[in-house]
Amino acid sequence: MLPGIGFSELLLLGLAALIIVGPKDLPMMMRRIGQFVGKGRAMAREFQAAFEDIARQSELDELRKEIEDLKRENTMKEAQDDLAAFEADVNSAVMEKTSAP
Q1: Residues 42-82: tens digit of each pLDDT
Q2: Which is it for the CA torsion 7, 10, 15, 18, positive or negative?
């Protein structure tokens, strides 16, 4: 039910609608109100779905960025390790050449 409206208030609204609109046009008016409410609910669902898609897309973009950052960090770490190994090889080769008479 509607918040803040009890059964007696709803009954009073129904009687007022019956008196104002009349018994002949009341079903048509109720149908139009129902269609309007249905369209409003559909629009609300569509808005909520679009909002959730945007949030999901934002999370995916953030996750992609984190993955790319991790890839860059791993690539940088591998390059540093390779460079350190190369430096060690060069140093050991230089030491061998300088220590050999």
Answers
A1: 999 999 999 888 888 888 888 888 888 888 777 878 878 88
A2: negative
Q: Which of 84, 63, 81 is nearest to 73 (CA)?
A: 81
DSSP structure string for 39-74: HHHHHHHHHHHHHHHHHHHHHHHHHHHHHHHHHHHH
CA distance 45 to 29: 24
For residues 3 and 21, the model is more confident at 21
Contact predicate 47/55, CB 8 Å: no
Output the pTM of the full model: 0.48
| Cβ 10 vs Cβ 1: under 8 Å | yes
